[in-house]
Amino acid sequence: MSQRRVGPRQVNILTLETTCDETAAAIVNDRLEVLASVVASQDDLHRRFGGVVPEIASRAHLERILPVIDETLARAGLSLHDLGAVAVANTPGLAGSLLVGLVAAKTLCVALDIPLLAVNHLQAHIYACRLAAQQEVFPCVGLIISGGHTSLYRCLGPLDFELLGATIDDAAGEAFDKVASMLGLPYPGGPSIQQAAQGGNPRAYNFPRTFLKDEERLDFSFSGLKTAVRYKIVGPGRPDFTKLELDPQQVADLAASFQEAVIDCLVGKAFLALRKTGLQILCVGGGVAANSRLRERLREEAHRQDVTLQIAPLRLCTDNAVMGAIAIERLKAGLTESLDLDVYPGPLRKPAEQSLP
Ligand code: KG4
Ligand code: ZN
Q: Distance, CA 206 to ligand 2 centroid (Å)?
C-alpha cells in the first residue's frame, strides 16, 4: 500500500467516463500506472430495449457516479486529497450522460482546488493501445470501432488526430446490436453475434461489403448490410414482412456471414489507410475491437503486410476510465480547462480542440 501513496512529484489523476452506458472511474498516475479502475455496466438496464435508452442511462449514471468514485479511491488506497487533477470525457456521447460526469468532475475540482482535464472519448479508445503497449505507438493509424463510432484517424501524436474516414450511417457496433436484435440474440449484440457465429458458415450468405473495393474512400457504411440481413429474415416476396422461423443453424450462418462482412470492411479500410498514409503502426480500440474473429483477421493481415498491430486488450476495448489516462498528455502540455467546460455530444471535427465552443 505504501508505494501507492503520493510521492513528492507524482500526480494522481481521477478519470471519469460516463459517455454512454458505463459509469466508470479510474486513478492513474503521471507514470501511466493504473492504481484502480471501476466499471459499473448498465447492460442489464438496457437489455430489454435491445439498445441504450439515453434517459435511463443518464439517471443510472446519477445514481452510480459517487459510489463508483468512492470504490475507486478505496481500491487505490487513496483519499480525495491525494488527487492532483480530475479528468472527464466530455465528447462525444449522450448529452445527459456526459453531463453527469462533467458536473461530478467540476464539483471535485472546485472542492479540492485542483485542475480539470478534458478527455476526448475517441482519442482515449486509441490511447488504450498506448497504455497496453507500454511504449510509444505514435505516429499511427487509429481505427476506432464502437457502438457509436467507426472512424479512421491519422494519429501523429496523442493530441494530434486527423480524421481520414468514418461511417456514413450506422457504426459497426450499432450494426452488431441491431442485427443481433433481428436474430433474437441478447443485447449487447457484439458478443452474442460472436458466440452465435462460432457454429456458422461465414460464406453461407454473400452480404454486401460497401466501399470495400473503392480505393479512394476510407469511409464505411453498414446500413445496407443490415438491411440485407433483414431481408434474409423477413424472406423475399413477403409483403406482410412476417418473420421466417429461423433454426439455430440459420441463425449461426447469418451471424457468421454478417460478422465476416463487417470484418472485411474494417480490415480492408484500416490497411488501405496504412498504405495511403505510409504509416507502419495500426492501433485498434473500441468495443468491437473485442471481437475475436476480427482480432484474428487483423493479426493475420498485419503479419502479411509487416505492420505493427497494437490492439487494446479486452478489458480496455469496451468503455472504461483507464483509457482516460490520455488526460496526462494534456496535463503535460498545459491544456487544463476552465470551469465553463461544456459537453459536446457529436464528434468534433478537430478532436484535440474539445474545450473550444
Ligand atoms: O466502445 P464501447 O464499449 O461503447 C461505445 O463507445 O459505443 O462499444 C460498445 C459496442 C457495442 O455495440 C457492442 O455490441 C460492441 O461494442 N461489442 C462487440 C463485441 N463486444 C462489444 N462487437 C463485436 N464483437 C464483440 N465481441
Ligand atoms: Zn466507447
A: 30
